[in-house]
Design brief:
It is a single chain. By secondary structure, the protein is an alpha+beta fold. The longest helix has 24 residues. The chain is globular, with a radius of gyration of 20 Å. α2 packs antiparallel against α3.
Length: 375
């Protein structure tokens, strides 16, 4: 069991996707993110590890910053709540939580298997082997940092969640994600939903050519970046990761990101989706389309259909992340609460209290709200 820096000679000898990701300094291709990436080498498995020492930047991206995830992003979400009275009542609570998190240096954190994506995926054959030793090593190496794992949900990571809980890791709810079970292939239940069939018809009749990322010219990755920005940064939140064209191209080249684009007869790319997959789960961290085109074009519907078809084709579970909850429910998406599991027992009492207060607030208030409002 080793933790290797990006310039460690031993890392150069490894050829896993995770090793290439760390070796090529993937974090430097994300504009609003600062962290150090290292590689955890468990022998059979390699995982990128993000290391934050706290204070890197006030608006550090939520994929490495709990402060942004639980306060900055919460402020953004309040602005989208349809119930304005509820949003007004929750605003002081969010402000108070932010103050507590800052005072407890919550951004001083190490996160294992952090691919700097909205959803991290875990190898299905890794159920926590070596966790005892890993916990001891991380505690010794990072005595002032919380450490743990993001993007865990009971449906996909039930065994791992139980092992982490048994080792004393704290469960901190993060969001509600939507899962589509494509393991039955063409017979998968979600494909029979009325909206899914309508989306299939729309995609078939749209006239767009579906092309893989391998066909893209170097300069076209700028267009892919722009389409992602139009949706995730301009329409949703500037706190989302600012993936650069170079990062997208590197991911496609190295194989850990698989792009599909919708190309019009004119040659213009109007939509893009990028897949990240484990051996059993598919996710779509990259989605973007030209938001200036008429809504009747249904570009988001077409991109969603591509994801649902791909999951069924591969007989995989699609983790379609959070957001657009009503849209995903209409297509058969099943909600699951996602957690971070964090080891904090070695931290000073004040920091432990803040982490436990945050977990209790999210479990007692956040989770019921997410379920009640179907977020």
């Amino acid at each position: 069991m080793k933790l290797l820096a990006a310039d460690d000679p031993q890392l150069a000898q490894l050829d896993s996707a995770a090793a290439r990701y760390v070796r090529e300094h993937a974090e430097q291709g994300i504009g609003n993110l600062v962290c150090e990436l290292q590689l955890l080498d468990l022998g059979q498995w390699q995982m990128p590890v993000s290391i934050n020492h706290g204070g890197e930047r006030a608006d550090n991206c939520y994929v490495v910053s709990p402060l942004t995830a639980y306060s900055g992003y919460a402020r953004d979400e309040l602005q989208r709540l349809p119930n304005r009275l509820l949003a007004h009542l929750l605003k002081p609570l969010v402000a108070g939580v932010e103050y507590l998190l800052r005072s407890a240096h919550i951004d001083r954190i190490v996160q294992v298997n952090n691919w700097l994506l909205s959803t991290n995926l875990y190898p299905s054959d890794w159920q926590g082997q070596g966790l005892d030793e890993l916990t001891v090593q991380l505690r010794q190496r990072f005595p002032t940092h919380a450490f743990g794992f993001r993007s865990l949900n009971p449906a996909s990571n039930g065994v791992l969640l139980k092992r982490l809980d048994a080792l004393g890791y704290l469960a901190v709810p993060s969001r509600q994600v939507y899962l589509f079970d494509g393991c039955e292939g063409a017979d998968s239940a979600y494909l029979r939903h009325h909206n899914c069939r309508l989306d299939a018809t729309l995609l078939r009749r749209s006239g767009y050519r579906i092309e893989t990322g391998e066909t893209l010219a170097h300069g076209e990755f700028e267009r892919v970046e722009a389409l992602y920005n139009l949706l995730y940064l301009d329409k949703y939140s500037a706190l989302n990761p600012h993936y650069s064209a170079a990062w997208l191209e590197q991911g496609q080249r190295d194989g850990w990101l698989e792009l599909r684009v919708l190309r019009a007869d004119s040659g213009r790319i109007d939509g893009v989706v990028g897949w990240f997959a484990s051996d059993t789960v598919l996710s779509a961290p990259i989605v973007g389309y030209d938001t200036a085109l008429p809504q009747r074009a249904g570009l988001y519907r077409q991109l969603t259909r591509l994801c649902l078809e791909e999951a069924a084709k591969r007989r995989m579970l699609l983790n379609f992340s959070s957001g657009a909850a009503h849209f995903k429910r209409l297509r058969g998406g099943q909600p699951q609460i996602e957690y971070s599991m964090l080891h904090i027992a070695h931290l000073p009492l004040r920091q432990r209290l803040v982490w436990r207060t945050l977990a209790a607030l999210l479990q007692g208030l956040g989770v019921p709200l997410m379920r009640k409002l179907k977020l």
